Amino acid sequence: MPDTLLLPASPEAFARAGELLRAGELVGFPTETVYGLGANAYDGAAVEKIFIAKGRPQNNPLIVHISDMDMLGGIVARVPERAAVLAERFWPGPLTMIMPKNARIPSVVSAGLDTVGVRFPSDPACMEMIRAAAVPVAAPSANRSGLPSPTRAAHVMADMRGRIPLIIDGGPCRFGLESTVIDLSDPDRPPCLLRPGAVTLDMLRGALGEVEVSGGVLSPLAQGVQARSPGLMHKHYSPEHARVVLLGGSHLAEYIGGYTPSHRCALIAKRGAVEQTAIPGCELVLLGESDEEYAASIFDALRTLDDGRCDLIFCQATGTGGIGLAVMNRLLRSAGFNIVETDV
Ligand code: TXA
Ligand code: MG
């Protein structure tokens, strides 16, 4: 594979990406959530390359991305009524809906399931690229499997250089966390939130009424329980070198002080949390005051701090309202579902 080309989002870049996708190649591209690693969703051989480039387990299905509603008919067997309601409210945007799969979509996309996840992203560069390809684009996040998702083109370059021909640089992603995933495939069961995101649980309940939250969102799946989403079973968002420790409560400085003599430490926190008390020997990364700002920068911060400079990355816990649920879902997974209470 020749070196990976990085092109700023432009009509030329979209045209080049469209050609590559139609020719069965992979392209790294921006979305409003995280960067994706795309292939033509109708081309099973092209989609297989995604699993190889990422080192992704074969049993973890991909999301299919569309740039207009007409594409949906070739991807799903039928559009559930609730999906039509959510599409009207939240598409284009950071919402993936699991629906019954159309036989036209190769089984490698859905990892053998009879359902398929579909998303209509709102990022203009992403839309232009899919339009140029003129086919639906199957894409997971563009990280090597297990690492934090990429929210900048440089992250994709770090993980995919030499493995794919082209990355489109659309700047930093607006939301910074992957899309909300909701399962609507069974009309006889309540809709089920599989992965929280920027389309929040309250927004979904506001549109649909009852929405269940899948096990695995804020606690590990119980032994022997069949995951409704294979992604719930896999290790995720883990830096390569450092260990992530999730801290609740307000005595962060005292707690971390117990580790600074023997470990190289960093703390990722919300502004206002700790800056009054600098923690000697601990690098402090403040991501803003709101959960939206925390979400937008958390993966970038984890990647930046994981260049070998620290052994322990402490992350401040946040509330589970709004997008906080998505932030906590990602942080709990990167910390192996452990949260240390510092107020006791
Ligand atoms: O924001 C996003 O969703 C990004 C951008 C690129 O669109 N994509 C993304 O894809 O995060 P990925 O593959 O990293 O995560 C997709 C999640 C996985 O947890 C997968 O198991 C789940 O969605 N999923 C996909 N298809 C499914 C299906 N048919 N049934 C249940 N879960 C599914
Ligand atoms: Mg992913």
Strand count, sense and closure of the main sheet?
11 strands, mixed
Q: What is the chain-wise order of helices and strands?
A: EHEEHEHEEHEHEEEHEEHEEHEHE
- Side-by-side strand order of the widest sheet: 1-8-2-3-7-4-6-5-9-10-11
Radius of gyration: 20 Å
Mean of pLDDT: 94
Helical content band: 25-40%
If helices are DSSP runs of H or I spanning 4 or more residues, what is the number of helices? 9
What shape does the CA trace take?
Answer: globular
Structure ligands: threonylcarbamoyladenylate, magnesium ion
Unreliable stretches: none
Distance between the termini: 54 Å
Report the strand count.
Answer: 16
Please name the defining characteristics of this protein.
9 helices, 344 residues, 26% helix, 16 strands, binds magnesium ion, globular, single chain, binds threonylcarbamoyladenylate, alpha/beta
Could you give a short description of this structure?
26% of the residues lie in helices and 19% in strands.
Task: Give an overview in words.
With 344 residues, this protein is α/β, with parallel strands linked by helices. The protein has helices at 11-22, 44-54, 81-90, 124-133, 153-160, 201-208, 252-257, 291-305, 324-334; strands spanning 5-8, 27-29, 36-40, 63-65, 95-100, 115-119, 137-139, 166-169, 180-183, 192-195, 212-213, 243-248, 265-269, 282-286, 312-316, 339-341. The chain starts with a strand and ends with a strand. Strands 1-8-2-3-7-4-6-5-9-10-11 form an eleven-stranded mixed sheet, with helices on both faces. Helices cover 26% and strands 19% of the residues. A hairpin with an 8-residue loop joins strand 9 (180-183) and strand 10 (192-195). Bound molecules: threonylcarbamoyladenylate (TXA) and magnesium ion. Threonylcarbamoyladenylate (TXA) binds at residues 31, 33-34, 36, 60-63, 96, 98, 110, 113, 115-117, 119, 139-141, 178-179, 181, 194-195, 229-231.
